[in-house]
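Task: sequence design from structure.
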């Protein structure tokens, strides 16, 4: 008998998962739920196996009711609803997939990083609970974190020992119209206005936003022009630091570096104090710089028609880079293992699926994790982050990715 998948959240990520699972022979039923009934109806209308439900995810009882009978619950909702969905998945004895690491798992205390503590709590407390019912929960399952974490596992394979890990993402898609972000502006500016996380000398630490710049030259997409990438608040260094000895051959340092159009736009705002969330007074009026800056940023395109309009106006560039570097030793020599992720750009993503490159990579990256569930390819139970896949799970992930024209190129460079 085929599986029933409940997908909570019908934005770009949830919608892509639903469409990919609609094609899976091992999936019989899909339930799509969101507070936005119009978005639910529009999605269900293009699927063959789906039904739709309007959901207020702040009410645990409503989440529980939607999840009844599910084999897998996919959480593509805002982070604040994570605890409700986790508990519901446990209650109905379903597998669980989350695009992020849910918030609200631990109480806020002065001097405690509640987000970091929440990840530790999820692994330590929810892991045994899912294992006890023979189910698996996977967190951080988009493109980054997610796909890039699986690629990092590929990067460390050839090494005997690993010292440093770099996850490098460069956004090179730029439209002629003013459009600094192709995803949620509030998420983008929130990440870009916070101190980042890094794993340095064996410890998870905070680093200044836009700090510790690196310069990389990748001939395959930027003709050897050095790319400037800086610290950026992301999950990956935290995951790698927690699992350095078990999954990353003893790495002592790990960084997430980000560059491109969004950074070039937001960094001057940050340095001018325009991403500050504290209320200020100016000419007799009180306002919050962050909220004002956010109000001036256009909403990214979601529909086929909106993207087509941007393409008709023209692009400045349509490129990008996602690279993993693992620095270490092999056969007694110092080497750098590089994994370059190739994926469709904006024009190709639109031609293939009628969506943006951001939607394509993040949504498809997430759907590949769901595909492992649909086809019983996971070998584990408990709760893991996306960097903790087994080698067989990683291999299946990228075999499936290749069918979507998401491929890897691995090279070893002697130092």
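Answer:
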């Amino acid at each position: 008998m085929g599986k029933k998948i409940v997908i909570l959240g019908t934005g770009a990520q949830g919608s892509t998962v639903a469409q990919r699972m609609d094609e899976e022979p091992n999936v019989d039923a899909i339930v799509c739920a969101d507070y936005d009934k119009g978005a639910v109806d529009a999605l269900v209308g293009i699927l063959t196996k789906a039904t739709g439900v309007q959901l207020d995810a702040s009410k645990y009882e409503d989440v529980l009711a939607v999840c009844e009978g599910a084999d897998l619950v996919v959480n593509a909702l805002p982070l604040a609803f994570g605890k409700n969905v986790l508990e519901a998945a446990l209650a109905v004895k379903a597998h669980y997939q989350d695009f992020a690491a849910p918030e609200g798992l631990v109480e806020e205390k002065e001097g405690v990083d509640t987000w970091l503590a929440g990840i530790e709590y999820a692994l330590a407390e929810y892991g045994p609970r899912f294992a006890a019912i023979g189910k698996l929960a996977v967190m951080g399952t988009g493109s980054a974190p997610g796909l890039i974490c699986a690629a990092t596992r590929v990067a460390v394979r050839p090494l005997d020992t690993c010292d440093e890990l770099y996850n490098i993402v460069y956004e090179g898609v730029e439209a002629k119209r003013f459009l600094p972000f192709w995803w949620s502006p509030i998420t983008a500016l929130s990440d870009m206005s916070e101190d980042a996380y890094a794993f340095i000398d064996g410890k998870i630490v905070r680093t200044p936003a836009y700090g510790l710049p690196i310069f990389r030259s990748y001939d395959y997409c930027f003709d050897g022009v050095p790319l400037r990438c800086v610290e950026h608040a992301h999950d990956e260094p935290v995951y790698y630091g927690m699992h350095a000895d078990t999954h990353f051959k003893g790495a002592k340092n790990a960084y997430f570096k980000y560059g491109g159009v969004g950074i070039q736009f937001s960094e001057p705002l940050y340095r001018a104090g325009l991403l500050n969330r504290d209320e200020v007074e100016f000419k007799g009026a009180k306002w919050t710089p962050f909220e004002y800056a956010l109000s001036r940023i256009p909403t990214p395109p979601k529909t086929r028609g909106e993207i087509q309009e941007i393409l008709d106006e023209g692009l400045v560039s349509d490129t990008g880079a996602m690279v993993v570097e693992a620095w270490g030793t092999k056969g007694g020599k110092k080497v750098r293992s590089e994994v370059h992720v190739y994926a469709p750009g904006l024009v190709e993503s639109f031609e293939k699926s009628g969506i943006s490159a951001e939607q394509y990579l993040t949504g498809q990256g997430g759907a590949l994790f769901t595909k492992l569930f649909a086809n019983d390819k996971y070998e584990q139970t408990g709760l893991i982050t996306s960097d903790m896949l087994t080698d067989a799970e990683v291999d299946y992930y990228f075999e499936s990715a290749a069918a979507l024209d998401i491929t890897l190129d691995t090279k070893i460079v002697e130092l």
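The domain at 147-354+406-414 is CATH 3.30.360.10 (Dihydrodipicolinate Reductase; domain 2).
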